[in-house]
Amino acid sequence: MGLNDKQLNKNKSFLQSVIHALSGVYSLISTERNFRKHLVMALMAILLGIWLDLSITEWLWITLAIFVVVVAEVLNTVVESIVDLIVGHHYDKSAKKAKDVAAGGVLIAAIFAVIIGCLIFIPELIQQFHIGGN
Ligand SMILES: Nc1ncnc2c1ncn2[C@@H]1O[C@H](COP(=O)(O)OP(=O)(O)OP(=O)(O)O)[C@@H](O)[C@H]1O
């Protein structure tokens, strides 16, 4: 039931399902450098949001932006793993397309997150420093 098991059959309990899901999250964090970078940026956005005392609507947008990037990273990693499983170290045009499109999805999600971040944080920062200047 741990990280190094060689189970092939279906999970027998909810706990076993959760342990394997957590193992997937651990694998994502420990093996995907870009995912770790996105996590650090998400943490910085959360800390900045706490400092700026964002409204609930602003928090909803920031949360959505963070989760869109996380989901895109998860799908990208799944695609990379499946492609590697199928083609191994052989060059393949379809493999390249699948990996490039998956990476493109992460890029689009990251651009969305940057736009949301700018729309929320720039006016908040301007207001913060304006009030501080009085
Ligand atoms: N089997 C293959 N056939 C053709 N092109 C490939 C293959 N494997 C990788 N590539 C090309 O190399 C790029 C990098 O692939 P790789 O699997 O190393 O992803 P990565 O560096 O982990 O990507 P990311 O930066 O999204 O984490 C792919 O986007 C693709 O263009």
TrEMBL record:
Its main location: membrane. One of its GO terms (molecular function) is metal ion binding. GO terms for cellular component: plasma membrane. ATP binds at E32, E80, K99, D100. A divalent metal cation binds at E32, E80. The keyword Lipid biosynthesis applies. It holds the Pfam family DAGK_prokar. The active site is at E73 (proton acceptor). The keyword Lipid biosynthesis applies. Belongs to the bacterial diacylglycerol kinase family. This is UDP kinase. It comes from Secundilactobacillus folii.
